[in-house]
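S.,

As promised, the 6-O-phosphono-beta-D-fructofuranose run. Input:
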Amino acid sequence: MPKQANKTIKKIGVLTSGGDSPGMNAAIRAVTRKAIFRGLKIIGIQRGYQGLLEEDFVEFGPRSVSDTIQRGGTILRTARSEEFKTEEGKKKGAEICRKHGIDAVVVIGGDGSYRGALALSHEGIAVMGIPGTIDLDIACTDYTIGFDTAVNTALEAIDKIRDTSSSHERCSIVEVMGRNAGYIALWCGVASGAEDILLPEKYDYDEQEIINHIIESRKIGKTHHLIINAEGIGHSTSMARRIEAATGMETRATILGYMQRGGSPTCKDRYYASIMGAMAVDLLADGKGNRVIGYHNGEFMDFDVDEALAMEKQIPEYQYEVAKALSI
Ligand code: F6P
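Predicted complex:
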């Protein structure tokens, strides 16, 4: 159980952790401005939990976040800290917070970052998680900051690849990010009209099925074939070689990579980040801690960190079936 018990919050720290995502700056801005609006002090903790351990702090004022809402990446920078994962690291992090009078920490990141937040809350620091990841793989929320920009960035690239693939009558495999989750692949696959969408949650590694699909598609008049492959499956280049050998259709693989994490956030990412950032501060100021913000069934809500981490998320079966039906 968290040791924090409705302590009055006077100073909040904010950090970004794990992979960056477009919209994180809008969230930092919202946390900063809402904290100041409510008469609280706000400390920017640079380079995630590693920066916390190294006391890499900067006191923020309202102008510290000016001109950032439209910028990709994170002005606080981010890191994956091995030291913070240790018991000593977590204790040290909480002690440093106490030393600097930081009563609460807002953590913007994914599941891994939430686990760090949970550890801090066990050490008596109030925490509030904001879902920031392009992967959309946080179970307690239908929306994660950065996903919308990432899928739109990927889609723009896929459309371009489709143009050339169609001119050359080729098969194109486009690999998108998502770690072990297939949400980016599913959305990009449906939105680009892909013939095959390979998701780690669904793919049975039956390559013959893809090969047969290509051969059948050509028989019914399709002149090119687009496959969206998720990072969690990977091996797009060797897959392309095997498909070309088996079908006789020229096949090219493109791995989109880090371009999907950058760029100016979409309106949707900025909006959700702004609301979630403000809400994180309001909840803390109103005496809540050990929570994460989510968006579910059309509403912004908050969940206990432990409960949020225990939830499971699955690819919606109907949406996956729709993707198959529309590629005939
Ligand atoms: O979680 C976001 C993400 O971009 C994943 O899609 C990807 O697997 C991972 O981060 C890459 O992480 P890194 O920046 O450490 O290479």
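The chain has two domains: 11-146+265-310, 150-261. The CA atoms of residues 190 and 323 lie 5 Å apart.

- D.
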